[in-house]
Amino acid sequence: MQAFSYIVRLILSLGVVTILSPIQAQTPDRTASPPVAAAEEAVVRAQMKNVDFHLTDRIIVHITTLDGQLTPSHGNMPVFDDKESFSLDVDSANISVSTVALSNDLNDFVFSKPDAPLKKLTVTARGNELVLKGILASKGGIPFETDGTVTATPDGQIRVHTVKVRALHLPVKGLMDLLGLDIAKMIDTKKVNGVSADKDDLMLDPQQLLPPPQMRGHLASIRIENGEIVLVFENPETKRRRPIISSTCGGRNFQSFKGGTIRFGKLTMNDADLELIDSDPTDPFDFSMDHYKDQLVSGYAKMTRQGGLCMHMPDFNKIKQNVSSKH
Q1: Are residues 134 and 201 part of one domain?
Q2: Other Cβ atoms within 10 Å of 307 Cβ, number
Q3: N or C: which end of the chain has fewer CB within 10 A?
Q4: Same domain (yes/no): 162, 179
Q5: Could you tell me the pLDDT band of residue 80, with boundaries at 50, 70 and 90?
């Protein structure tokens, strides 16, 4: 087994190999292209459980459970080394975002353009309300603070309803009402993807709120719980069929990809049967798309009797210091 693990590591770092399904391995006729084409067009089903998913080094979401599929955005397969090569189409999921991660997301991604109307944003939770602080860059850098509640609209958008507004440490909501002003007139959101204004409310599109890989799905509900924003996604067409989120490799915290074709590093897997497993099940699986190869090299692999691959990987936050020193 040690020899097998060494070979897998060597392949990941040096080799250019296509992993064949058991059926393909039994048919050596290399002129038979239809099975490969069919595999590439097939759906890659994805399941996740108890994963801290790093979209970037500063933007991390916690995926309690997720069931969906990987859909190529360009090319004919999802490529792990290109986060924009695929989207994650969610049938059902329970995802939480800390206020720190949301603050980083607003600054680094949503309002990152030089001409964005808001800058230097921080988000905190106060009971069932979100408190947003920053500066109105489009109004000469005036400091502001808003309190708002969050709800999910019937079409799956996030509505942030403004309860209070303060600018230069003075309450201005009453003055705005008196003058007939609203958030839509104060903040120009035309140049910000995924953000619009509806009178005193900010409307956020959850499908454009986070960096790639894009998560697409219908937001059924949103709430603030223990200082975090909890988002529940449900596909109205499949919500009656509750998926069983299970590991075929015996993992407690994991990501599973089955069917279709995927590429990671120099490996291409047809009729995919790949599972990434947390080596330490006592805490969430800390996984980074940008540094997954470092996690692979620090782990080990086992192959199932059906030809599947079980990759046991350490948490990224436990090898992060060593990764930083190498770079």
Answers
A1: yes
A2: 16
A3: C
A4: yes
A5: very high
Maximum distance among all Cα pairs of the chain, rounded to whole angstroms: 78
pLDDT in tens, 229-276: 999 999 877 665 667 888 999 999 999 999 999 999 999 999 999 999
From 254, 321, 325, select the one nearest 284 (Cα to Cα).
254
Same domain, 105 and 178: yes
Do 224 and 253 belong to one domain? Answer: no
Q: What are phi and psi of 249, to 5 degrees?
A: -100, 5
Residue 30 lies in a domain: no
Asked whether 49 and 245 are in contact (CB, 8 A), the reply is yes
Q: Residue 78: inside a domain, yes or no?
A: yes
Distance between the two ends of the chain, CA-based, in angstroms? 31
Of 230, 258, 287, the one marking the end of a domain is 230
Mapped onto helix, strand or coil, the DSSP state of residue 310 is strand
Contact 162, 183 (CB under 8 A): yes
β partners of residue 126: 129
Q: What six digits make up the tokens of 125?
A: 């939770």
DSSP string for residues in 112-135:
-STT-SEEEEEEEEETTEEEEEEE
Q: Which two tokens stand for residue 89?
A: 């189409």
Q: Which domain holds residue 134?
A: 100-213+218-230
* Closest C-alpha among 285, 254, 245, 284 to residue 67: 245
Taking a C-beta distance cutoff of 8 angstroms, is the pair 209, 189 a contact? no
pTM above 0.70, yes or no: yes
Question: What φ, ψ does residue 266 adopt, rounded to 5°?
Answer: -100, 10
| pLDDT digits 0-9 by tens, 36-71 | 444 445 789 999 999 999 999 999 999 999 999 999
Burial letters 81-102, b for 16+ CB under 10 A, else e: eebebbbbbbbbbebbbbbbbb
Give φ, ψ of 285 to 5 degrees: -75, 105
At 109, list the tokens.
């991604």
Q: Residue 187 in contact with residue 197, Cβ under 8 Å?
A: yes
